[in-house]
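**Entry details**
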Amino acid sequence: MPIANEAMQWSGSLSQIPKVQILNRVLLGNPTHFSIEEAINVHMEDESGELNSVDSSLAMEQWNNLKKAYRDIGTEVHELSPVPGLPGYCFTANPSLVLPLPDGNRIVWLSKMAHSSRFKEVEHHASFFRSQNLPLKEFPETVDRFEGCGDGILHPGRFLIHAGTGSRSSIRGWETLSAEYPDLQILHYTLQDSRFYHLDTALAPLNENTALFVPSAFDPSGQELLASAFENLIPIPIEEALHFAGNAHCPDGKHVLLQKGNPKIESILLRKGFHPIPLETSEFRKSGGSVFCLKMAW
């Protein structure tokens, strides 16, 4: 199917899309060497224009709490060992994309990171997934940048991807996947706000029919496309969106791991029958990421 940029280009019928497994394992990257050495998004500098500084011990404590939260709800957790010289290594959502296929298999597409400081993260993802006997795919040279699940959000249980393009991922990667998998539904959104530089900062599917989203991150066509894909769209107030409420993860259709201190969204989640699990990720937010950025579902 061609990539859909507007609601009128897509049938909007989830029931006709092949089913796929919901990925129920997560890969986390040990943050021992996490630091902020350059500003590659607008969140990485303070009000004076200086790079944010990381409290390494607090970052490790917060990461361990995230790991424990996943294990407490029964999610299988795997870890990448620390690697010096890779300051963004803990943000495992970006260097690859694990795609579940309708035949029950999974395949890993290796990213093309937009910034050289993150290039080498990809080889560590490749090594891990090779050890798990998952097949690996690489993009052709014509794809200049593609940042995995940062811009590729899987629709729970269906062979459908919500695809963002902007400063981190170009349309060429999605064109490659569209050509490789004719049955894969790809809904394309052009990100328009630098504060929401990855799609995963502005869209968080909770189940097949429900998602959190940041309205101002999408143009009118993008908002209409989202409304055609999700029966229940929950808009995030801008003050909570900037507190990374949209970078949440719901691994099982029930529990929602999200940044602590977003009372409006927590209240809505409770009313709709979800179980919010607030977590403090302040050290990682200094680098522009929270819960979703810190894990790769596979």
Notes: The chain has a mean pLDDT of 96. The CA atoms of residues 143 and 172 lie 5 Å apart.
